[in-house]
Amino acid sequence: MSDGGYGISSANAPTASASPAPSTQPPDLGDVGSWTSSAGHDWLILADPDPEQLLLAAYFDYGLVDEPPARLDAAARLCGALRAELQRPIEVGVGEVSVPEVAVELEPSMLGLRIRGRRAAVLGAWTHLGELFARPDLPANAPLLPRQVNAWDRDLATHAGVSAMNLADMPIHGPDGEAGRLLSCELLAHLDPRRGAVRHVFITNDPTLVGVGWTADPPAAAPPTRPPVYLDRRPALVLCPPDDGVVLSATATPGADAYVAGFVMQALIADLLDRMDMQARLGYEFITLRDAFYCCFALNTNDGRLGGREVMAVHDAVVTHPQPVPDTLIERALNAYGPSATVDDALRLRTSGRAGNVQPTADGVRRALAEIRASVHLPLRDETEPLAEQAGYLLWKHIDEPGGDVILLHDGPQHRRNADHPDAIKLTAHQIQAHQFNWVYRGLPRRWHPDHSAGFRWVDSTRLVMACYDPSDQYLELIDDRLRTVSLYWDEVVTHPQLRTELERRGIWRLPRGTFGLIQ
Fold first, then answer.
1. Strands 282-288, 246-252: parallel, antiparallel or unpaired by DSSP?
2. With b meaning 16 or more CB within 10 Å and e meaning fewer, what string describes 415-440?
3. What is the CATH number of domain 236-396?
4. Which pTM does this prediction carry?
């Protein structure tokens, strides 16, 4: 199987003589667990031996942020297939079977698989996992792991581009059927720890199982650490639908201090919103992007009262003119940081090869709060836009690009099939714009005339990442690398040959193809 989608070819594939990648010391877990190495594999031994419930797990430095649009759903399908394959009944005695408990985790930057249960059942499933790595073969009808929706997908695109991570909320899917099965099989082969292409960590609660079975085989090469990804951490103003309830987002150095600082910031913002009579629960979403801890604070429900004025009030109170944070608030957040969070943070750091702290301190939390304040992203509103000039915030807004003719697609609003149906297309040097107009009915004979613009959407046609086409409705949606979208109805486009030719010249049919469908 080809691994071209993972940046590995026969010419640059790792070999057994490859020099090891630079490594950091594993995070100190104290009494929670300990680290060891066997046959070139990292092992985490958890301090919870249980003779009745054995644990074996594997975590990989591969997540949704690493899955490009062309391979959309490959990891979700793989996780669903592995859970089904490994959760089969296993014979543990004469006439006796046991079904292990299998949990799969698919995060933005990590994929994990845990097998827990009776000893014989867990060891049997673990052996089968090694067989699947060696001979990747998955069922074609494997269920996809349900998607996890993010609070502010377009903001995530400003940090990490477009990937399966922030396409989760869109009703599109990648290749399915045999093509989708093959992509998942390729990913399974790519993740094989014995291959040495992806960093990984094994976990057990029984130290005698370190190096058990197929994990005794060393990797063909020292798994590489992914190079640092530049993440622009300057404050910014980013487009956001007004009904999404987003207050702000920010980044900080990954680790326990940032995680705890997020809870402190959540408490500060929630208290301010309560005093503004915003009776709504404030959510705290955090995503580890290897080189940055991303956090976003948004109302779980927004009844329209959170507007630009309220966002600016929060910004002024917690970012521009913050009051000293009480020690008691930080202590409460520190006390809520327990052993499970310690293990989670340690796993993410060790799996990605990053250094970091898993024992938060009050001073560390205060430093993380300062990083959060220095990197905020706010929803772009009329009230927040002046920050671009007043405070130097980056402005993620439409770039006015002159030129290009406006091409009407139909002759009146009665032809719109839905609220997003464009009335006209305009092509500039780098943009595809889909315009809507306010129409007036006038003249003799009376007919519809476009009066003035009612707004438009646009994509950068030099940075398109995906095209989603519905052949039944001849509906095409183009997506660029900042998650901007433009919708076209191809039966209207083809009636304008020059427009069609220009769109095709810009490579829309060479893009990775998505299909519309329900999301799980």
1. unpaired
2. ebeeeebbbbbbbbeebbbbbbbebe
3. 3.30.830
4. 0.89
